[in-house]
Amino acid sequence: MLYLVDASIIAEFLITGLHTPNAQAFFKRALTGDLFTIPELALNECTNVIWQAVRFRGMPPALALQALRDLKALPLKRATTKAVLETALAIGLKHNLAIYDSLYIALAQRSRNAFVTLDRKQSVAAIAEGVTVIPVTNFI
Q1: CA-based nearest residue to 76, from 16, 130, 36
Q2: In whole angstroms, how far apart are CA 132 and each of 3, 24, 25, 80?
Q3: Less packed terminus of the chain by CB within 10 Å, N or C?
Q4: Residues near 67 by beta carbon (within 8 Å), at least 6 away in sequence
Q5: Domains in the chain, please, with CATH?
Q6: pTM of the prediction?
């Protein structure tokens, strides 16, 4: 199956949280041929989450470097966002979402990939825009 993956899922995989086991099970699907796409900005978003974990939550820098290595090793195909900027702006204005979040929805619409996110507001907007949203809790 093809998935458009939100940074929230990747961050949950990299930094232990409530849904880390689900995120781990989700990414294991790559072994069976599932494909994961992210917007080009997602790597920057995830690196910022790692930085925040060090800065504000006491993650040791050595663990942060390992998380960054793990991020770079994930089988993620990067999609350019230039072609969906207008759609993302419209979605952002319609649903009062940041453009960063709207870009995921616009890419999922265009690619017709299922969208996986932990962001509730983003999920509601994606569904309203006709995107198939699969909760990460579906993966165990």
Answers
A1: 36
A2: 10, 21, 19, 20
A3: C
A4: 14, 15, 50, 53, 59
A5: 2-138 (3.40.50.1010)
A6: 0.94
